[in-house]
Design goal:
It is built from 20 helices and five strands. Strands 2-1-3-4-5 form a five-stranded parallel beta sheet, with helices on both faces.
């Protein structure tokens, strides 16, 4: 017996409270539904191109492109004549209604909408489990992988990484504005985060006095910046879990590279009395483009696209850098952090911070063949500019290099 397909519902609504209310109404009707919430019409269209939902609920006055234009663009496509679409608009005059009618919305509701009436519409428009059982995944709106990758790279958030990575990056960059009590309330709901932070606080490097037994104790010992960086690492690790075995293996390699870079950067910066947490963050984010690209390729296959081995190698070689650049720009990472990420990949001309030199040295250390000692890098430009003591390179823990 085929497994019922989980209904996917896209909500395009700029007001967070209204968006959450719409999501709750959908989940009341179908608790198993996967609800995607966006606040911009262009991002909504980009989501539809990546994989069609079973239903779109859109505000008529969206930014980017409004709800009517979103509906118009979806109706233009010959593959989508029957895509259910609920439009909620403040424009309920006869002229506006007549203008939308040729686009055949499944429902046109005025603001403020009646929740009970909308719920009835949802019951009628979202297919029951037995109806979904034999359905195939919807066809892609985009015909080629190249066009698809161009689309997702340019969408509102730069690439389709899971939302918790964006949130974790944002928190890490605003550590000075975060209260430990607020973090305790949020992180205590996630047992994996709780366990990881307590373990980190009780590690040999942090162990001072009595061991930590609670999340609050662990966060107090670690400090806000360290906590947020550890959570960022966990968010990246979760993003590396993909279904395609080829992509999963590559994503695991990308994640391990990020983790080693972060830990090595942290160790070197600490030894040199530099900003260790900043180096840790940069190490985690240096290959974020590769991870975003791999998740995009998983989404492409989930929506029915094909991906051969040669095509996979070619895409990774040509696209990873542009995905990383798009993310760093879209997320508005501070220039200092972007400088460190760029330094990992190479030093150009100009004056560099000592932290940037540390990231460049990290890359050289991680590329070093197993039969060559770290001290062989004393002639590297970054090592010379840092004026490293040769003994420092000899003290690097082997676990950070292999």
């Amino acid at each position: 017996m085929p497994t019922p397909k989980v209904p996917h519902v896209l909500i395009a609504e700029p007001d967070p409270w209204t968006s959450d209310l719409l999501a709750q109404l959908v989940l009341d009707v179908h608790p198993d539904a996967k609800v995607m919430q966006v606040a911009d019409g262009r991002e909504a269209l980009a989501r539809c191109k990546r994989g069609l939902p079973d239903l779109v609920i859109a505000d008529g006055e969206l930014g980017g492109i409004d709800g009517v234009e979103l509906l118009r663009q979806l109706r233009r496509h010959p593959r989508l004549p029957a895509l259910p679409f609920i439009l909620i608009s403040a424009r309920v005059d006869a002229t506006s209604v007549r203008a939308v009618r040729p686009l055949a919305p499944s429902a046109y509701l005025g603001k403020p909408f009646n929740a009970a009436k909308l719920r009835k519409r949802l019951v009628a428009l979202l297919p029951a489990a037995e109806e979904r059982a034999g359905r195939l995944e919807p066809a892609l709106l985009i015909d080629t992988l190249a066009e698809y990758l161009d689309s997702v790279r340019e969408e509102g958030q730069g690439a389709p990484l899971l939302g918790d990575v964006r949130e974790a990056v944002s928190q890490s960059l605003q550590a000075d504005q975060v209260d430990l009590r607020d973090l305790d309330e949020v992180f205590s709901r996630d047992p994996q985060i709780t366990a990881r932070l307590i373990a980190a606080a009780n590690s040999a490097a942090q162990h001072l006095g009595m061991p930590c037994q609670t999340l609050a104790q662990a966060m107090q010992r670690l400090g806000i910046t360290r906590v947020l960086n550890l959570v960022l690492g966990m968010a990246l690790e979760r993003n590396a879990r993909l279904r395609d075995p080829r992509l999963a293996e590559l994503a695991e390699t990308v994640w391990r590279s990020a983790q080693r870079s972060a830990e090595l950067g942290y160790w070197l910066a600490s030894e040199l009395d530099l900003d260790a947490e900043l180096c840790y963050t940069a190490g985690l984010l240096h290959n974020i483009g590769e991870l975003a690209l791999l998740r995009s390729l998983q989404d492409w296959q989930d929506a029915g696209g094909s991906l051969g081995n040669e095509e996979l190698e070619d895409v990774l070689r040509r696209r990873a850098a542009s995905f990383g650049s798009a993310l760093r720009i879209r997320w508005r990472l501070p220039f200092g952090l972007r400088e460190l990420v760029a330094a990992f990949h190479g030093l150009g001309r100009g004056v560099f911070s000592r932290e940037a030199l540390v990231l460049n040295l990290c890359a050289a250390l991680l590329r070093l063949p197993n039969d060559q000692p770290p001290a062989s890098l004393l002639g590297e430009r970054s090592a010379r500019l840092l004026r490293l003591d040769p003994l420092l390179l000899e003290r690097i823990p082997q676990r950070l290099l292999r």
